[in-house]
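Contributing: when you submit paired examples, paste them exactly as shown. First protein:
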Amino acid sequence: MSKAKIGLGCVTFGREIGRRDSFALLDAAVERGLDLLDTAAAYGEGASEEIVGEWLRSRPDAAASVEVATKILPPFHASEIRGRVEESCLRMGVSGIDLLYLHSWDTTVEEHGVLAALDELLRDGKVRRLGVSNVKMGYLLRVRKIQEQLGFVPFSVIQNNFNYAVRDLTEADRKVCREHGIAVVTYSPLGAGFLTGKHRNGVEKGSRFDVIPGHQDVYFTAQSWDRLDRLENAAKSAGVSQAHLAMAWAFSQPDIDYVLIGARKLDHLEQAFLAREEDVELLSGL
């Protein structure tokens, strides 16, 4: 069984780590063969895009070997989409976007003018691929049908939260994606730190759950705590860390093209590469 590839999520850039540490992560990632970088206009209020862009300009050979994805937030308005894409291009110092995501689902996605504006970006070469993040499968299939009826190039990538605790893509969803030629990208293999168990006795101060309290509503559920219990027991039996086992699980799930990992230091990146190479037999206890 083939495993998902590693993509580098750049959400920490300019928010949790600065330029020097971000560059070190990017250099190490590309040296290891990683070929997908994922940022967004909202990350650090544009700081992540700026750091990625500075790195791209300073490493032209490496830049040629990676695909860079970014995102724009809803609501979406036909008259504003090109301008927002141009702003991202300006921050990154690029002429076009390899992969543009709509950062989350919104009813405005289905408006004819919005879809026409996105299609125009594709046909102009300003954007090479379109995707949607944080979307239910039914909504994505519905808007793809509208695009096809209008003669537009459909969305071809989905990016959702997916880990041992919270799974915003079912096995059936992933099979549908395979059948329709939709690439699947997942993020947060450690559940923003939930799967390490560090929030067992309350939210750890300074953590993502502390900085972005909305994470608590997503993860602090009976099902997620139950899955954390199982992960802890399986990790103890296997003699590995919970983080290692959770990552190995994420990389081993079928019909996933990329798993995005966030990092603040090189150890986090190495942890992901080690987990990806783990034998699937390790997962037998889950």
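Second protein:
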Amino acid sequence: MAMATSDPVITSPITGRWDLTVNLGDRMAASWLEVRVSGLKTLTGHFVGDGGSARPVSQIIFKDGKVSFHIPPQFEVSEQDMYFEAEYKDDKLVGTILSPRGTTFAFTGVRAPHLISDKVPVWGNPIHLFNGKNLEGWQPLGKNNQWIVEKGILRSPKPGVNIRSVKTFNDFKLHIEFRCAKESNSGVYLRGRYEVQVEDSKGMEATNIHLGGLYGFIDPLFMMAKAPGEWQSFDITLVGRLVTVIVNGKKVIENQQIPGITGGALDSKEGEPGPIMMQGDHGPIEYRNIIITPAK
């Protein structure tokens, strides 16, 4: 039912999207929050933690400059909720997150940049990010690196660390080919922040947690997955927040806006250039023919 023009709509200074940085003690982790007004006065939203996907928040409380909400655990083995508390001051958020495992982490939050432009990008020359010979130009994100190069293929034969390109990019077109083992899982992170899901997904529903989806945010129109063990391809264009994804020659996402970072992002500095990152902590995965065409 449409709202009558006389209904008093309540606005709030905390509505919008927030890029959060969480101090986990041994490292700084990326997180994200979106706040919206539902109806006349209720604040709702979505939250992305250090890992996992975007989760709905049924109600966010904002009173006397204090922000709070709680949501059930996602992948944590716990019966406890996650509790979020922050102070809103000078258009920033400063607070704590109490995890379902009972550990408290401090965080800071700033407004997420808009990243939408009406300028048409001018593309530069293609760059072969992977030389097919060694890991030159790539950085494994951990001490115990399992990534190897064999016969022109970048392989992660077992779960381990993620790997990123040394070079960083703003807007770009990316071609990348991958071969996924049965029941395995990986992902290609655009600017190190937005994961396009790589998964053994043949026969599954076309949703954002399966192959070709923008993890937790954007569903692909079609499920184009091949059988495990077959080579497959992504052709991805990212301009600001607008993403187009072609899986195995079929356009499955067209010029859709990415709301925010996905779980496992390198950082939450959305206004800065970032690398191409591949996930290596889930199962065996192989990549080849990684070609990026940056905007000038």
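If you have annotations for the second protein, write them as plain sentences, like these:
The longest strand covers residues 28-38.
Confidence is low (pLDDT under 50) at residues 1-7.
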